[in-house]
Amino acid sequence: MQNKKRPKVVLLKGNGPIIINSEMMELITITLSHGLVGLPLEELRAEKVIIVKDMETFWEVHKKVKEKPACFVYSYDELDEEDIKRIKSESISYL
User: Fold this and answer.
1) The dihedral of CA 75, 20, 3, 84: what is its sign?
2) How wide is the angle at C-alpha 75 spanned by C-alphas 50 and 18, nearest 5°?
3) Does a cis peptide bond (omega within 30 degrees of 0) precede residue 69?
4) What is d(CA 89, CA 71) in angstroms, rounded to the nearest whole number?
5) What is the mean pLDDT of residues 28-43?
């Protein structure tokens, strides 16, 4: 049996459309109804991705960043280079 590395779970919120793990979603609907969604990071496609370093900032980031569309990402485990390669975006920034 092959020992596969499991993908890290990321928390997502924001506004605008995204594709995560081949599933298309509208983040604003999820954010308004549930606050966030947690999914394994196999692949993420979004126009603008902002990776947030701590949970406290993650909950308040929508007050600081008003640009739309934006996908805010937080992971309890630090995202390494391999994880970042799974994110396809025109703009990736850190906060």
Assistant:
1) negative
2) 50
3) yes
4) 10
5) 92
Q: What is the pLDDT of residues 46-58, one digit of tens each?
A: 999 999 999 999 9
Question: Of 84, 50, 44, whose CA–CA distance to 66 is shortest?
Answer: 50
What does the H/E/C string look like for 8-77? CEEEEEEECEEEECCEEEEHHHHHHHHCCEEEECCCEEEEEEEECCCHHHHHHHHHHCCCCCEEEEECCC
pLDDT of residue 2: 60
Backbone angles phi, psi at 70, to 5 degrees: -150, 140
Contact 28, 15 (CB under 8 A): yes
Higher pLDDT, residue 75 or 62: 75
Pairing status of strand 17-20 against strand 37-40: unpaired
Greatest CA span in the chain, whole angstroms? Answer: 47
